[in-house]
Amino acid sequence: MTMLKFSTATVLVAALGLGACTNATLIDNYNGDPNQNTKSGAIIGGILGASVGALSNSSNKGAAVIGGAVLGAAAGGAIGHGLDQQAAELRQQLANDGITIVNTGDRLIVSLPNDLTFASDSYAISSAVQSDLQKIADSLLRYPDSSVQVIGHTDSDGDASYNQGLSVKRADAVADQIQAGGVPYNRVQTTGEGEDQPVASNLTPEGKAQNRRVEIVVKPQSS
């Protein structure tokens, strides 16, 4: 009997690694298909699983490739299915149209525009988004097998070091609100990127508005 020299966890880690190469802040690939990332996750996982099988030291490469593809497709499809469900629920539940949800296939990115979330030069959360942050916390509790990263961003106006500090404070404020909603502290990490990761041009008011944001990044955990 052919012994496959890899595990589901190996394939799953490979699938997550490929997804991490995607610049998720620059794309929103939602096309209206509620199962789009179940499908794409299975395809990507199958390809990666087959690659892992081909690189294994199994005496039967054909069986290893097939076995890897099956494991990878199952692992990738499971990740994609969970993200599809969570994204669809959040799109239905969140009240503010300004909050965007990007599903890259390996993670969700919930983007809160700063102009909606904070007053100018402030890191106190507006009452306009507090109920939505509670809904996000509720979603994270319903889908507990993920890590959460809260990332603050600014535009390029003003002093870069000041912007960096403000982005950290705003990320911390959003994380505090999520944790107050019941999400365990050890699940949430915060960071501030200041003006270093724009998603639009800082030469126009519209672009600057897009760059001023806090992102909540939800990444499924490998088993």
List its salient traits.
223 residues, alpha+beta, 60s Ribosomal Protein L30, Chain: A, 2 domains, 5-stranded mixed sheet, 7 helices, 5 strands, 51% helix, 14% strand, disordered N terminus, signal, cell outer membrane
Notes on the protein architecture:
The structure is a single chain. The protein is of the alpha+beta class and 223 residues long. It folds into two domains: 8-90, no CATH class; 107-220, 60s Ribosomal Protein L30, Chain: A. It is 51% helix and 14% strand. It has helices spanning 8-20, 36-55, 61-93, 114-117, 127-142, 160-180, 205-211; strands spanning 100-103, 108-113, 146-153, 188-192, 213-220. Strands 1-2-5-3-4 form a five-stranded mixed beta sheet. The radius of gyration is 19 Å and the shape is globular. The two termini are 26 Å apart. One of its GO terms (cellular component) is cell outer membrane. This is OmpA family protein.
